[in-house]
Specification:
The protein is of the alpha+beta class. It has one domain: Peptide Deformylase, CATH 3.90.45.10. Helix content is 17%, strand content 30%. It has two helices and eight strands. The protein binds nickel (II) ion. Nickel (II) ion binds next to helix 2.
């Protein structure tokens, strides 16, 4: 396992639709997930998607526990999600500041569904299904966007709500 260099906005892999994982458990998947955790934690991220370390597979990891970048955020248990699927529960959207490890030092105000149900598989192939809201729901929507080649600036309705974190007091950096 290793800390991998994160691809930044503009790299073509970040704009591609990632492929589903069709074999698990596998050594390759375990290696990939280990690299995702090591890289995410080294940078105090809340989540990371496989394309961000150059792997075009539908795998994400996320966790929020005493994260210095998100001191007020609710706790999100460490989760590996393979081939995730999201369903919005209700129409309600909430706008809040987001950052991304692929877009260092920037942040933007992004509308996301407030309540979602997500499902997918763990690293061992066991199904996972959860209903979540708030920051947890935001992180999962952000990471799943990476699997469809979308970065958060593409979700910002007003480009004036996008800028450098140091200039925008309300936002924090990181995923
Ligand atoms: Ni991101």
């Amino acid at each position: 396992m290793a800390v991998i260099k994160i691809l930044r906005m503009g790299h073509p892999i970040l704009a591609q639709v990632a492929a589903p994982v069709d074999l698990f458990p596998s050594q390759e998947l375990e290696q990939l997930v280990g690299d995702l955790w090591d890289t995410m934690r080294a940078l105090d991220g809340a989540g990371l998607a496989a394309p961000q370390i150059g792997v075009g597979l539908r795998v994400i990891v996320f966790e929020v526990a005493d994260n210095p970048r998100y001191p007020d955020a609710e706790t999100v248990p460490p989760t590996v999600l393979v081939n995730p699927h999201i369903e919005a529960l209700g129409e309600r959207m909430e706008s809040d500041w987001e950052g991304c490890l692929s877009i260092p030092e920037m942040c933007g105000r992004v509308p996301r569904f407030q309540h979602i149900r997500y499902c997918g598989y763990g690293i061992d192939g066991a199904p996972i299904e959860r209903e979540v809201s708030g920051f947890h729901a935001r992180v999962v929507q952000h990471e799943c966007d990476h699997l469809d080649g979308l970065l958060y600036p593409q979700r910002i309705p007003e480009l004036r709500d996008f800028g450098f974190c140091e200039e925008i007091e309300a936002c924090s950096s990181g995923e």
